[in-house]
């Protein structure tokens, strides 16, 4: 983040702090208060970032292992639902991709598709009648929807869930999208047959630096 | 979707004729079987692990005369032109940036893709490719050498038959070197398409398409692009889409690293050839200049004699 004020000494402190072998883990809770994430996103400044995030999410949800598009089908080959996901970033405190992916998954979990009551075939056109009852709706199966994990390379180590300060200390981070395990959403009895191993749905590098092959592999394993 | 009004677009409810061809209804398995014959040889006669660079890689630098540096890379049917222009001040920027910037723009020719005609305005894929290209190039360029300036890199894809991002990265690396932009290392890039347990190195468009569509059964599938700085042993960019487990990703990475390594001598050859050509040209220019001077001098002598005589 360009707007962050951090002296070189403070950066050195963070870099050295990370090199100590202790697990730095945690989930950040952010309160969304400000409507301006950062001054550099003013006007068209945030466009690049927005394109990057949208592309990342699209890549993560591209595979059917991540999100089965068959759920959105109404009539095969004729009609389907189309879901628009709009993401508004209110404030950047580091670890943007992870937060976005969590928000998207939560929003998809909350999405209700109204059930179709009747369909009229009128020549080639299909006239759909949707149920009036707001509770007569089905929710989506998002058991395998991917979450993104950002691994920020600082020194030789990779940091999970970096803060904005930590992000400014690293030149490169690796973002991996990992599919969820549907069994964690089900009750216990059918765990065994739905338990799937997690898979990568997307891997991408963010930032202007480069990494050694071994570090990348380590980071991928750590992200998994 | 804005329509292109300069062309006849057909009635709104018209259906593309390709819907009615036999190819359109082919299932995933049929398409997959088409890619490989019984001996495991691909449609264009390559083995699975054979990149197009080994059999048909054509590259040259200094292609566009207006540009400071340029390159042309051809991987059989994938053809890419790249031009690099002089550094210029970053437009519309108030803050001083310590590092120079690279501005990348990837453009598909309207006739480049087999599945659809490309629109004039940059679409999402072109923008995504531009961002990916910039990310891949940034670590290889000594950006501290031109603070507050940007170098423009323009890629024009004449024909897309798969692996266009890696072709673009290779071309951009050549063009940057040709433009004498200070760089840390030669950048090379390669793509692999994974379908099940098969790995298609340097895939064609059909292979790429199948690797990114969803299979009927949950098998590994995906597309990986890796670019490396070989001398520094660094990875400058790595992109994966699809759905793959850890083992398959690591295997693919190893294959990609080897393939990138293999490209380095080819790129070096092109660059050395380019430098030699430049020297030749300079020598020739100097010789010609000498000859002209000699001719002029002799003329002068003649005139002097005439003047003295007169």
UniProtKB/TrEMBL annotation, chain A:
Which GO-annotated molecular functions does the record name?
Answer: mRNA 3'-UTR AU-rich region binding
Print the keywords alphabetically: Cytoplasm, Exosome
Keyword Cytoplasm listed = yes
A GO cellular component annotated for this chain's UniProt record is: nuclear exosome (RNase complex)
Q: Which GO terms describe its biological process?
A: exonucleolytic trimming to generate mature 3'-end of 5.8S rRNA from tricistronic rRNA transcript (SSU-rRNA, 5.8S rRNA, LSU-rRNA); nuclear mRNA surveillance; nuclear polyadenylation-dependent rRNA catabolic process; rRNA catabolic process; TRAMP-dependent tRNA surveillance pathway; U1 snRNA 3'-end processing; U4 snRNA 3'-end processing; U5 snRNA 3'-end processing
| Classification via Gene3D superfamilies | GHMP Kinase, N-terminal domain (3.30.230.70)
Name this protein carries in UniProt:
Ribosomal RNA-processing protein 42
Q: Where is the Exoribonuclease phosphorolytic domain?
A: 34-114, 146-223
Q: Which CDD domains match?
A: RNase_PH_RRP42
User: What family does this belong to?
Assistant: Belongs to the RNase PH family.
InterPro entries attached here?
A: ExoRNase_PH_dom1 (IPR001247), ExoRNase_PH_dom2 (IPR015847), ExoRNase_PH_dom2_sf (IPR036345), Exosome_comp_Rrp42_subfam (IPR050590), PNPase/RNase_PH_dom_sf (IPR027408), Ribosomal_Su5_D2-typ_SF (IPR020568)
Tell me the compartments it is located in: Cytoplasm; Nucleus, Nucleolus
TrEMBL record, chain B:
Identify the species of origin.
Spodoptera exigua (Beet armyworm)
Q: The Exoribonuclease phosphorolytic domain covers which part of the protein?
A: 59-182
Family statement drawn from the similarity comment of this UniProt entry: Belongs to the RNase PH family.
- Gene Ontology CC annotations of this record: cytoplasmic exosome (RNase complex); nuclear exosome (RNase complex); nucleolus
CDD domains per UniProt: RNase_PH_MTR3
Kindly give the InterPro entries that the UniProt entry links to this protein. ExoRNase_PH_dom1 (IPR001247), ExoRNase_PH_dom2_sf (IPR036345), PNPase/RNase_PH_dom_sf (IPR027408), Ribosomal_Su5_D2-typ_SF (IPR020568), RNase_PH (IPR050080)
Q: Key word rRNA-binding present in the record?
A: no
Q: What is the protein named? A: Exoribonuclease phosphorolytic domain-containing protein
Which molecular function terms from Gene Ontology are attached? RNA binding
Question: Which key words are in the record?
Answer: Cytoplasm, Exosome, Nucleus, RNA-binding, rRNA processing
Tell me the domain of life: Eukaryota
User: Which chain positions lie within coiled-coil regions?
Assistant: none
Q: Which PANTHER family match?
A: EXOSOME COMPLEX COMPONENT, EXOSOME COMPLEX COMPONENT MTR3
Localized where? Cytoplasm; Nucleus
State one Pfam family annotation: RNase_PH
Q: What is its main location?
A: cytoplasm
Q: Which GO terms describe its biological process?
A: nuclear mRNA surveillance; poly(A)-dependent snoRNA 3'-end processing; rRNA catabolic process; rRNA processing; U4 snRNA 3'-end processing
């Amino acid at each position: 983040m360009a707007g962050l004020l951090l002296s070189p000494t403070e950066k050195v402190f963070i870099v050295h702090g990370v090199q100590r072998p202790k697990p730095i883990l945690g989930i950040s809770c952010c309160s969304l208060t400000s409507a301006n994430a950062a001054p550099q996103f003013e006007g068209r400044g945030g466009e690049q970032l927005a394109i990057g995030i949208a592309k990342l999410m699209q890549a993560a949800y591209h595979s059917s292992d991540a999100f089965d598009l068959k759920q959105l089908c109404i009539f095969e080959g004729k009609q389907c639902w189309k879901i628009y996901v709009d993401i508004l970033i209110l404030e950047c405190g580091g670890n943007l991709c992870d937060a976005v992916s969590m928000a998207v998954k939560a929003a998809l979990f909350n999405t209700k598709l109204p059930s179709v009551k009747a369909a009229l075939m009128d020549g080639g056109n299909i006239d759909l009648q949707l149920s009036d009852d707001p509770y007569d709706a089905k929710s989506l199966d998002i058991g395998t929807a991917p979450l993104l994990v950002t691994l920020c390379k600082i020194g030789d180590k990779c940091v999970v869930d970096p803060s904005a300060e930590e992000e400014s200390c690293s030149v490169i981070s690796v973002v991996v999208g990992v599919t969820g395990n549907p069994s964690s959403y089900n009750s216990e009895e059918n765990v065994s047959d739905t338990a799937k191993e997690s898979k990568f749905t997307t891997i991408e590098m963010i930032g202007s630096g480069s990494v050694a092959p071994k570090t990348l592999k380590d980071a991928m394993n750590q992200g998994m | 979707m804005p329509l292109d009004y300069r062309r006849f677009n057909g009635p709104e409810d018209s259906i593309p004729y390709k819907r009615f061809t036999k190819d359109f209804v082919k299932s995933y398995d049929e398409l997959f079987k088409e890619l490989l014959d019984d001996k495991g040889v691909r449609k264009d006669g390559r083995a699975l692990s054979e990149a197009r660079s080994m059999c048909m890689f054509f590259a040259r630098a200094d292609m566009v005369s207006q540009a400071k540096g340029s390159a042309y890379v051809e991987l059989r049917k994938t053809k890419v032109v790249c031009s690099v222009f002089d550094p210029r001040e970053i437009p519309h920027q108030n803050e001083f940036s310590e590092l120079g910037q690279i501005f990348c723009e990837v453009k598909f020719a309207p006739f480049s893709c087999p599945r659809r005609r490309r629109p004039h305005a940059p679409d999402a894929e072109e923008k995504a490719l531009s961002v990916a290209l910039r990310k891949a190039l940034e670590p290889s360029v000594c950006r501290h050498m031109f603070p507050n300036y940007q170098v423009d890199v323009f890629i024009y894809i004449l024909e897309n038959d798969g692996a266009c991002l890696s072709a673009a990265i290779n071309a951009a690396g050549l063009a940057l070197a040709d433009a004498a932009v200070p760089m840390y290392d030669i950048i090379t890039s390669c793509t692999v398409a994974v379908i099940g347990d098969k790995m298609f190195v340097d895939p064609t468009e059909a292979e790429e398409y199948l690797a990114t569509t969803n299979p009927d059964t949950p098998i590994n599938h995906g597309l990986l692009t890796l670019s490396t700085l070989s001398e520094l042993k660094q990875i400058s960019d790595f992109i994966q889409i699809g759905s793959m487990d850890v083992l398959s990703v690591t295997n693919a990475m190893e294959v990609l690293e080897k393939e990138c390594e293999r490209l380095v001598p080819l790129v070096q050859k092109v660059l050395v050839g380019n430098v030699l050509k430049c020297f030749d040209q300079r020598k020739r220019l100097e010789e010609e200049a000498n000859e002209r001077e000699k001719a002029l001098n002799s003329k002068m002598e003649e005139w002097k004699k005439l003047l003295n005589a007169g």
